[in-house]
Amino acid sequence: SKTAMLSTVMLMAAGALGAPSVKVAAPTGLCITEAESPAAAVDRIALTGLVHGVFDHVVVEQCTSGETAPLTVLEFVPVGGLNVSNHWNQVVSGLVDVAYSSDGRIVARGLTPKQTALLPRQTEVIPVLGHPMTPLNPDSEETAKLRDIKDKLSLHGANPIVERMIGDISVERMQEVLNYITGVTSGITTRNSIAPMGLTAAQWYEREFERYGFKADLEEFRTGYFPNVIATKLGVEEPDTIVVVGAHLDSRSRASLSATDPAPGANDDGSGSQALLQIARIISEYGADFKYTIVLGAWGGEEQGLVGSRAYAEKCKARGDKILAMIQADMLAYRGSGEGIQCGFPNRYADEILTDLGMSILNTYTPEIETCYTSACCSDHQSFYEQGYSATQYFERCGSIIDPQYHNAGDVVQREGYDLTGQLLSITRGYAATALTLAEFNG
After folding, report:
1. How far apart are the first and last CA of the chain?
2. Phi first, then psi: what are they for 188, rounded to 5°?
3. Is the N end or the C end of the chain the one with fewer CB atoms within 10 Å?
4. CA–CA separation, 348 vs 353, rounded Å?
């Protein structure tokens, strides 16, 4: 996370305007001027993700610049439907320097890697930007292009060549990738961001992308972490317009930073990262070209707070990249008992227009999938959303995380609930169809 100047802001909880106010540290960029109405301040501050959806009234007490510290939002992620957020709050409050806490959310000040490693496995780590998020521009050229793609899909329906391409994504090919990155056919026992075996996995992805004709690069972003793997296929008509297709390659056990604890990560996020190689392979085998440039990003450092993707998204923004859309696949394979095949889209930190388009593409190409919304939070798409890019995420179900092996050594393919032949196959095909449709397949 970035070092952020702090200011003192007074926040009143939603629906409790008569109640005592609570002070909370916030980045200096969020200081509210006397001329700004509380409602406008809430709208602007909500864009940072710091107090999104929690407060409806904000009043400035004072703004100071004498204190500096990075801020991190720690959120409770219920697993298996069990909500013990009060206990979680108590445990986490004993580990970190708390700037503010509410039920299921703590804003921590100056979080260290050691503290991060000690956090309960139900903790989602979200470093706060040192500046407000860049809001999406509803009148941008990119938004107009997304609407045009939606209109074409509505008018023409499924492209028969795209249907054949995604039909060539098979269980056998998915299994090959999963076997390698989870250690069944390799020596990889963890892909933790600081593990040497994580670098082995990243280098293998680089070679596979190159084998499929993509220009592949390993991009460093933090000392001691394995790099992002960035694979690029230039568009033939508008190469400066980019579609980013992502998943995180790193995994974790109960300890978020351990180079030795077993962390096969077959679902989180082997299920998403294998999809990147399926997309690269079918593009290569069909000799497909696209109107726009496709970038496949296998991110590192997601489990430590979106570190790799945030570094890449910030770089894209700094150099003025025109990103049409960013889609992220994170946890696609677990299917709860009695549930149908589902794909959940985020109910926050996502572009509604792109989310609606993604749902429409799945409904067109993979109608067996029930599309819906999920409260599962804050994968790498958020890094792009923060920079004002259209972004959304593909997740395995409606509602929250229920995979009992989430952040555990038991996150392997051969287990109850890991649905390779149904859930994962369908969403991988739908995710690929989304990538091919967004990049505007020429064929």
Report:
1. 43
2. -80, 110
3. C
4. 13
